[in-house]
Amino acid sequence: MIPYYLLYAYLSLNSLYSKKFSVFTGTLTFLILLIFIGFRHEIGVDWIQYLNIMYEDTYLKLIKGHEIGYNFFNWVGSELDSIYIVNSLSAIVFLSGLFAFCKRQPYPWFTLIFAFPVLLLPVALGLTRQSCAVGIEFFALNAVEDQKIIKAIILIIFAITFHFSALFLLTIFIPDILKNRFKFQFVFLLAIVSIFAYYSYDYFAYRLAGYNELYNTDLGHTWVSKGALPRILPSLLATLILIFNKDKFASVTNKISLKIYSRIGYCVLLFFVLMIYVPFKASILDRFAIYFVPITMFVFNRTMDLRLFKISKYYYQLIFLSYYFFQSFLWLETAAHKASFVPYKNILFL
Protein backbone atom coordinates (compact mmCIF):
# COMPACT_ATOMS: atom_id res chain seq x y z
CA MET A 1 0.00 0.00 0.00
CA ILE A 2 2.79 2.42 0.96
CA PRO A 3 4.36 2.62 -2.56
CA TYR A 4 1.05 3.89 -3.99
CA TYR A 5 0.74 6.62 -1.37
CA LEU A 6 4.39 7.61 -1.72
CA LEU A 7 3.93 7.96 -5.47
CA TYR A 8 0.84 10.16 -4.98
CA ALA A 9 2.72 12.27 -2.41
CA TYR A 10 5.61 12.73 -4.86
CA LEU A 11 3.29 13.90 -7.63
CA SER A 12 1.36 16.15 -5.23
CA LEU A 13 4.45 17.92 -3.91
CA ASN A 14 5.68 18.57 -7.43
CA SER A 15 2.26 19.87 -8.47
CA LEU A 16 2.32 22.41 -5.61
CA TYR A 17 5.86 23.62 -6.13
CA SER A 18 6.29 23.38 -9.92
CA LYS A 19 3.94 24.40 -12.68
CA LYS A 20 5.83 22.70 -15.52
CA PHE A 21 8.12 19.70 -15.92
CA SER A 22 11.80 20.52 -15.99
CA VAL A 23 14.04 18.31 -18.12
CA PHE A 24 15.29 16.62 -14.96
CA THR A 25 12.00 16.19 -13.08
CA GLY A 26 10.09 15.17 -16.21
CA THR A 27 12.66 12.52 -17.13
CA LEU A 28 12.96 11.29 -13.54
CA THR A 29 9.19 10.97 -13.14
CA PHE A 30 8.87 9.14 -16.46
CA LEU A 31 11.52 6.63 -15.33
CA ILE A 32 9.94 6.19 -11.89
CA LEU A 33 6.57 5.43 -13.46
CA LEU A 34 8.16 3.17 -16.08
CA ILE A 35 9.77 1.07 -13.34
CA PHE A 36 6.60 1.17 -11.25
CA ILE A 37 4.44 -0.09 -14.13
CA GLY A 38 6.83 -2.11 -16.27
CA PHE A 39 8.59 -4.08 -13.54
CA ARG A 40 5.56 -4.84 -11.37
CA HIS A 41 5.37 -8.46 -10.26
CA GLU A 42 2.10 -10.42 -10.09
CA ILE A 43 0.12 -7.18 -10.04
CA GLY A 44 -3.20 -6.95 -11.86
CA VAL A 45 -6.32 -9.11 -12.09
CA ASP A 46 -5.24 -10.67 -15.40
CA TRP A 47 -1.57 -11.28 -14.57
CA ILE A 48 -1.78 -15.03 -15.32
CA GLN A 49 -3.88 -14.42 -18.41
CA TYR A 50 -1.29 -12.02 -19.81
CA LEU A 51 1.43 -14.57 -19.12
CA ASN A 52 -0.52 -17.19 -21.08
CA ILE A 53 -1.13 -14.76 -23.95
CA MET A 54 2.60 -14.10 -24.22
CA TYR A 55 3.33 -17.77 -24.85
CA GLU A 56 0.33 -18.58 -27.08
CA ASP A 57 1.58 -18.97 -30.66
CA THR A 58 3.06 -15.48 -30.56
CA TYR A 59 4.80 -15.76 -33.93
CA LEU A 60 1.63 -16.98 -35.63
CA LYS A 61 -0.43 -14.18 -34.07
CA LEU A 62 2.20 -11.64 -35.12
CA ILE A 63 1.79 -12.72 -38.75
CA LYS A 64 -1.96 -13.37 -38.84
CA GLY A 65 -3.30 -11.51 -35.82
CA HIS A 66 -4.95 -8.11 -35.85
CA GLU A 67 -3.93 -6.56 -32.53
CA ILE A 68 -0.48 -6.68 -34.05
CA GLY A 69 0.92 -3.86 -31.93
CA TYR A 70 0.48 -5.77 -28.70
CA ASN A 71 1.25 -9.09 -30.43
CA PHE A 72 4.63 -7.68 -31.45
CA PHE A 73 5.39 -6.87 -27.79
CA ASN A 74 4.34 -10.41 -26.87
CA TRP A 75 6.60 -11.87 -29.54
CA VAL A 76 9.57 -9.89 -28.17
CA GLY A 77 8.64 -10.92 -24.62
CA SER A 78 8.33 -14.60 -25.52
CA GLU A 79 11.66 -14.55 -27.36
CA LEU A 80 13.32 -13.06 -24.27
CA ASP A 81 11.14 -15.13 -21.91
CA SER A 82 10.08 -12.07 -19.90
CA ILE A 83 6.63 -10.64 -19.19
CA TYR A 84 8.47 -7.61 -17.77
CA ILE A 85 9.67 -6.76 -21.27
CA VAL A 86 6.06 -6.82 -22.51
CA ASN A 87 4.89 -4.67 -19.62
CA SER A 88 7.76 -2.21 -20.01
CA LEU A 89 7.21 -1.76 -23.75
CA SER A 90 3.51 -1.24 -23.08
CA ALA A 91 4.33 1.24 -20.31
CA ILE A 92 6.56 3.21 -22.68
CA VAL A 93 3.67 3.57 -25.14
CA PHE A 94 1.23 4.60 -22.41
CA LEU A 95 3.58 6.98 -20.61
CA SER A 96 4.89 8.57 -23.81
CA GLY A 97 1.35 9.52 -24.80
CA LEU A 98 0.44 10.64 -21.29
CA PHE A 99 3.52 12.82 -20.85
CA ALA A 100 3.18 14.29 -24.36
CA PHE A 101 -0.38 15.26 -23.44
CA CYS A 102 0.62 16.58 -20.00
CA LYS A 103 3.25 18.88 -21.48
CA ARG A 104 0.56 20.54 -23.61
CA GLN A 105 -1.61 21.31 -20.56
CA PRO A 106 -1.34 24.43 -18.37
CA TYR A 107 -0.51 22.31 -15.30
CA PRO A 108 1.36 19.12 -16.26
CA TRP A 109 1.84 17.88 -12.70
CA PHE A 110 -1.85 18.24 -11.91
CA THR A 111 -2.61 16.44 -15.16
CA LEU A 112 -0.75 13.42 -13.74
CA ILE A 113 -2.81 13.76 -10.55
CA PHE A 114 -6.02 13.70 -12.63
CA ALA A 115 -4.78 10.49 -14.29
CA PHE A 116 -3.61 8.81 -11.10
CA PRO A 117 -6.62 6.92 -9.65
CA VAL A 118 -8.02 5.66 -12.96
CA LEU A 119 -5.27 5.52 -15.58
CA LEU A 120 -2.03 5.18 -13.63
CA LEU A 121 -3.39 2.59 -11.20
CA PRO A 122 -6.06 0.14 -12.50
CA VAL A 123 -5.43 0.68 -16.23
CA ALA A 124 -1.63 0.87 -16.47
CA LEU A 125 -1.18 -1.81 -13.80
CA GLY A 126 -4.01 -4.10 -14.84
CA LEU A 127 -5.25 -3.49 -18.39
CA THR A 128 -1.98 -3.62 -20.28
CA ARG A 129 -3.32 -3.72 -23.85
CA GLN A 130 -5.87 -0.99 -23.25
CA SER A 131 -3.27 1.22 -21.57
CA CYS A 132 -1.38 1.26 -24.88
CA ALA A 133 -4.54 2.31 -26.72
CA VAL A 134 -5.13 5.10 -24.20
CA GLY A 135 -1.54 6.27 -24.60
CA ILE A 136 -2.03 6.57 -28.35
CA GLU A 137 -5.36 8.36 -27.77
CA PHE A 138 -3.36 11.09 -26.00
CA PHE A 139 -1.22 11.55 -29.11
CA ALA A 140 -4.43 11.79 -31.16
CA LEU A 141 -5.78 14.50 -28.86
CA ASN A 142 -2.54 16.44 -29.28
CA ALA A 143 -2.99 16.16 -33.04
CA VAL A 144 -6.50 17.57 -32.65
CA GLU A 145 -5.05 20.49 -30.71
CA ASP A 146 -2.79 21.10 -33.72
CA GLN A 147 -5.94 20.86 -35.91
CA LYS A 148 -4.60 17.77 -37.69
CA ILE A 149 -7.72 15.62 -37.63
CA ILE A 150 -6.50 13.17 -40.32
CA LYS A 151 -3.38 12.46 -38.26
CA ALA A 152 -5.58 11.98 -35.19
CA ILE A 153 -7.74 9.39 -36.94
CA ILE A 154 -4.71 7.50 -38.23
CA LEU A 155 -3.41 7.39 -34.64
CA ILE A 156 -6.75 5.99 -33.45
CA ILE A 157 -6.50 3.26 -36.10
CA PHE A 158 -3.03 2.52 -34.74
CA ALA A 159 -4.52 2.33 -31.21
CA ILE A 160 -6.90 -0.39 -32.45
CA THR A 161 -3.86 -2.59 -33.15
CA PHE A 162 -3.35 -2.71 -29.37
CA HIS A 163 -6.95 -3.05 -28.21
CA PHE A 164 -10.10 -3.59 -30.24
CA SER A 165 -12.20 -1.28 -28.01
CA ALA A 166 -10.40 1.80 -29.40
CA LEU A 167 -12.55 1.34 -32.53
CA PHE A 168 -15.24 3.20 -30.57
CA LEU A 169 -13.14 6.39 -30.69
CA LEU A 170 -13.56 6.68 -34.47
CA THR A 171 -17.19 7.73 -33.91
CA ILE A 172 -15.87 10.76 -32.00
CA PHE A 173 -13.14 11.79 -34.43
CA ILE A 174 -14.45 10.97 -37.92
CA PRO A 175 -17.36 13.48 -38.15
CA ASP A 176 -14.89 16.36 -38.44
CA ILE A 177 -13.65 15.21 -41.84
CA LEU A 178 -17.05 14.56 -43.45
CA LYS A 179 -17.49 18.19 -44.46
CA ASN A 180 -14.17 17.92 -46.31
CA ARG A 181 -15.10 14.68 -48.04
CA PHE A 182 -13.82 15.74 -51.47
CA LYS A 183 -10.35 16.59 -50.27
CA PHE A 184 -7.44 14.34 -51.14
CA GLN A 185 -6.76 13.72 -47.44
CA PHE A 186 -10.22 12.25 -47.00
CA VAL A 187 -9.82 9.96 -50.02
CA PHE A 188 -6.44 8.84 -48.72
CA LEU A 189 -7.81 8.18 -45.25
CA LEU A 190 -10.84 6.35 -46.67
CA ALA A 191 -8.48 4.08 -48.60
CA ILE A 192 -6.50 3.29 -45.44
CA VAL A 193 -9.66 2.58 -43.44
CA SER A 194 -11.06 0.41 -46.25
CA ILE A 195 -7.90 -1.68 -46.51
CA PHE A 196 -7.74 -2.00 -42.73
CA ALA A 197 -11.40 -3.01 -42.56
CA TYR A 198 -10.99 -5.56 -45.38
CA TYR A 199 -8.12 -7.37 -43.73
CA SER A 200 -9.71 -7.08 -40.27
CA TYR A 201 -13.27 -8.08 -41.16
CA ASP A 202 -13.05 -11.64 -39.82
CA TYR A 203 -11.40 -10.45 -36.64
CA PHE A 204 -13.97 -7.70 -36.03
CA ALA A 205 -16.83 -10.13 -36.66
CA TYR A 206 -15.29 -12.58 -34.19
CA ARG A 207 -14.69 -9.93 -31.51
CA LEU A 208 -18.12 -8.33 -31.90
CA ALA A 209 -19.76 -11.74 -31.64
CA GLY A 210 -17.68 -12.44 -28.56
CA TYR A 211 -18.64 -9.15 -26.91
CA ASN A 212 -22.30 -9.76 -27.74
CA GLU A 213 -22.27 -13.28 -26.30
CA LEU A 214 -20.27 -12.31 -23.24
CA TYR A 215 -22.03 -9.11 -22.26
CA ASN A 216 -25.51 -9.30 -23.81
CA THR A 217 -26.75 -12.83 -24.51
CA ASP A 218 -25.03 -14.62 -21.64
CA LEU A 219 -27.94 -14.27 -19.22
CA GLY A 220 -26.17 -16.36 -16.61
CA HIS A 221 -23.77 -13.56 -15.81
CA THR A 222 -24.07 -9.99 -14.61
CA TRP A 223 -21.24 -7.57 -15.16
CA VAL A 224 -21.62 -5.24 -12.20
CA SER A 225 -18.69 -2.95 -11.46
CA LYS A 226 -19.08 -1.20 -8.11
CA GLY A 227 -16.32 1.23 -9.00
CA ALA A 228 -17.82 2.26 -12.36
CA LEU A 229 -19.89 5.19 -11.07
CA PRO A 230 -17.16 6.64 -8.80
CA ARG A 231 -14.69 6.42 -11.69
CA ILE A 232 -16.95 8.25 -14.13
CA LEU A 233 -18.00 11.01 -11.69
CA PRO A 234 -14.96 13.27 -12.37
CA SER A 235 -15.63 12.94 -16.11
CA LEU A 236 -19.28 13.82 -15.48
CA LEU A 237 -18.32 16.92 -13.49
CA ALA A 238 -15.84 17.97 -16.19
CA THR A 239 -18.56 17.46 -18.81
CA LEU A 240 -21.05 19.68 -16.97
CA ILE A 241 -18.42 22.39 -16.49
CA LEU A 242 -17.61 22.29 -20.20
CA ILE A 243 -21.23 22.30 -21.39
CA PHE A 244 -22.27 25.25 -19.21
CA ASN A 245 -19.12 27.28 -19.90
CA LYS A 246 -18.55 26.55 -23.58
CA ASP A 247 -17.99 30.19 -24.50
CA LYS A 248 -15.21 30.54 -21.95
CA PHE A 249 -13.52 27.33 -23.08
CA ALA A 250 -13.81 28.48 -26.71
CA SER A 251 -11.47 31.32 -25.81
CA VAL A 252 -8.69 28.98 -24.67
CA THR A 253 -8.81 26.25 -27.32
CA ASN A 254 -9.55 25.77 -31.04
CA LYS A 255 -12.93 24.84 -32.51
CA ILE A 256 -11.96 21.27 -33.42
CA SER A 257 -10.67 20.48 -29.92
CA LEU A 258 -13.81 21.96 -28.40
CA LYS A 259 -16.00 19.79 -30.63
CA ILE A 260 -14.01 16.63 -29.86
CA TYR A 261 -14.15 17.17 -26.09
CA SER A 262 -17.84 18.10 -26.32
CA ARG A 263 -18.55 14.78 -28.05
CA ILE A 264 -16.59 12.96 -25.36
CA GLY A 265 -18.73 14.83 -22.82
CA TYR A 266 -21.99 13.73 -24.44
CA CYS A 267 -20.70 10.15 -24.36
CA VAL A 268 -20.00 10.58 -20.64
CA LEU A 269 -23.59 11.71 -20.08
CA LEU A 270 -24.92 8.72 -22.02
CA PHE A 271 -22.72 6.23 -20.19
CA PHE A 272 -23.58 7.73 -16.80
CA VAL A 273 -27.31 7.28 -17.48
CA LEU A 274 -26.75 3.72 -18.74
CA MET A 275 -24.70 2.82 -15.65
CA ILE A 276 -27.64 3.89 -13.49
CA TYR A 277 -30.41 2.24 -15.51
CA VAL A 278 -28.48 -0.86 -16.64
CA PRO A 279 -26.18 -1.49 -13.64
CA PHE A 280 -25.72 -5.16 -14.50
CA LYS A 281 -23.80 -4.05 -17.62
CA ALA A 282 -21.68 -1.47 -15.80
CA SER A 283 -18.47 -3.45 -16.26
CA ILE A 284 -18.44 -3.22 -20.06
CA LEU A 285 -19.48 0.45 -19.91
CA ASP A 286 -16.67 1.09 -17.44
CA ARG A 287 -14.16 -0.48 -19.83
CA PHE A 288 -15.11 1.94 -22.63
CA ALA A 289 -15.39 4.92 -20.24
CA ILE A 290 -11.63 4.70 -19.73
CA TYR A 291 -11.27 6.59 -23.01
CA PHE A 292 -13.26 9.51 -21.55
CA VAL A 293 -10.79 10.31 -18.74
CA PRO A 294 -8.89 12.89 -20.87
CA ILE A 295 -11.89 15.23 -20.62
CA THR A 296 -11.17 15.68 -16.91
CA MET A 297 -7.54 16.49 -17.67
CA PHE A 298 -8.52 19.01 -20.36
CA VAL A 299 -11.33 20.72 -18.43
CA PHE A 300 -9.87 20.81 -14.91
CA ASN A 301 -6.60 22.31 -16.16
CA ARG A 302 -8.43 25.20 -17.79
CA THR A 303 -10.92 25.55 -14.95
CA MET A 304 -8.07 26.65 -12.70
CA ASP A 305 -6.96 29.36 -15.11
CA LEU A 306 -10.50 30.53 -15.90
CA ARG A 307 -11.24 30.57 -12.15
CA LEU A 308 -14.82 29.46 -12.66
CA PHE A 309 -17.30 29.77 -9.78
CA LYS A 310 -15.07 32.54 -8.38
CA ILE A 311 -12.76 30.03 -6.74
CA SER A 312 -9.06 30.92 -6.60
CA LYS A 313 -6.42 28.78 -8.23
CA TYR A 314 -4.98 27.88 -4.82
CA TYR A 315 -8.30 26.48 -3.55
CA TYR A 316 -8.84 24.59 -6.79
CA GLN A 317 -5.50 22.91 -6.28
CA LEU A 318 -6.37 21.89 -2.72
CA ILE A 319 -9.77 20.61 -3.85
CA PHE A 320 -8.27 18.53 -6.65
CA LEU A 321 -5.46 17.10 -4.52
CA SER A 322 -7.90 16.18 -1.75
CA TYR A 323 -10.50 14.65 -4.05
CA TYR A 324 -8.06 12.55 -6.08
CA PHE A 325 -6.35 11.33 -2.91
CA PHE A 326 -9.77 10.29 -1.59
CA GLN A 327 -10.60 8.49 -4.86
CA SER A 328 -7.21 6.72 -4.83
CA PHE A 329 -7.71 5.78 -1.16
CA LEU A 330 -11.15 4.28 -1.88
CA TRP A 331 -9.77 2.21 -4.75
CA LEU A 332 -6.80 0.95 -2.74
CA GLU A 333 -8.85 0.14 0.35
CA THR A 334 -12.20 -1.09 -0.99
CA ALA A 335 -11.70 -2.33 -4.58
CA ALA A 336 -13.22 -5.75 -5.27
CA HIS A 337 -9.89 -6.89 -6.73
CA LYS A 338 -7.74 -5.25 -4.06
CA ALA A 339 -5.82 -8.50 -3.51
CA SER A 340 -4.53 -8.30 -7.10
CA PHE A 341 -2.86 -4.94 -6.45
CA VAL A 342 -2.05 -4.88 -2.74
CA PRO A 343 0.62 -5.36 -1.57
CA TYR A 344 2.53 -3.82 -4.45
CA LYS A 345 5.44 -5.98 -5.65
CA ASN A 346 8.26 -5.11 -8.01
CA ILE A 347 10.71 -7.60 -9.54
CA LEU A 348 13.62 -5.24 -8.78
CA PHE A 349 12.98 -5.41 -5.04
CA LEU A 350 12.13 -9.07 -4.51
Please provide a brief summary of the model:
The chain contains 18 helices and no strands. α5 crosses α6. About 3% of the residues have low confidence.
Note the topology.
Elements: H1 2-17, H2 23-38, H3 47-55, H4 58-64, H5 68-80, H6 83-103, H7 108-126, H8 128-145, H9 149-160, H10 170-173, H11 175-178, H12 184-217, H13 228-244, H14 246-250, H15 255-277, H16 282-289, H17 294-306, H18 313-334
Helix pairs in contact: 1-7, 1-18, 2-6, 4-5, 5-6, 6-7, 6-8, 7-8, 7-17, 7-18, 8-9, 9-12, 13-15, 13-16, 13-17, 15-16
Question: Which keywords apply here?
Answer:
mainly alpha, 75% helix, globular
Describe the protein's architecture and organization.
By secondary structure, the protein is mainly α. The protein has one domain (2-349). Helix content is 75%, strand content 0%. It has helices at 2-17, 23-38, 47-55, 58-64, 68-80, 83-103, 108-126, 128-145, 149-160, 170-173, 175-178, 184-217, 228-244, 246-250, 255-277, 282-289, 294-306, 313-334. α4 runs antiparallel to α5 (68-80) and α7 packs antiparallel against α8 (128-145). The two termini are 16 Å apart.
Low-confidence stretches: 214-223
Strand content: under 5%
Helix percent reads over 70%
Number of domains: 1
Q: State the major sheet.
A: none
Listing every helix as H and every strand as E from the N terminus to the C terminus, the arrangement reads HHHHHHHHHHHHHHHHHH
Please give the radius of gyration in angstroms: 20 Å
Basic shape: globular
Mean pLDDT across the residues is 85
Helix/strand-derived category reads mainly alpha
Query: How many E-type strands?
Result: 0
Number of helices: 18
Q: Tell me the distance between the termini.
A: 16 Å
